[in-house]
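Reference record
================
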Amino acid sequence: MSPNTATLFSMVAWSIWTRRNKLRERKPIWDVGETVKREKELLQEFKDLQDFPSWYAIPRVEVRWKPPGTGLFKINFDGAVFEDRALVGLGIVIEDESGLIIAALSQKIPLPSSVEMVEALAVRRGNKLAHSLAKRAVLAADTDVWLEELPQDLIDVFQFDLA
């Protein structure tokens, strides 16, 4: 038996099994002739997709970090999901035009409902951190500020999202 025949046989057998289950559950079905015809079409579609060279699939684009303009800051953020612990880690880094880290935040939170929500929370926390630090910068003027632990007013900003 050729590989194509074996593959087609497997596909038709699966379709017949599926057809049987649909009949048992009183769901709409195709007749047997239509089933074989559709499986041949699906097999051909699968083969056609396999004929594309691997280099064709996804062009590679090199992405490199670029510093912000002079006097500006760049916020990088991301989220990591730890499903086994039902937690998410959020990471935020604020860098200046030289690539020096101005501020960083790492936070564990309960697992939200989706990966999109994880990214949205990372964006929101990064934005809040930047705004909170910008308000302090006006007061700090030319002094360097190192925060080993967040001040209470900044903690309140981040705890609000968890409520």
User: Anything to note?
Assistant: Residues 140-147 have pLDDT under 50 and may be disordered. The beta strands are 74-82, 87-95, 101-110. Residues 53 and 59 are 12 Å apart (CA to CA).
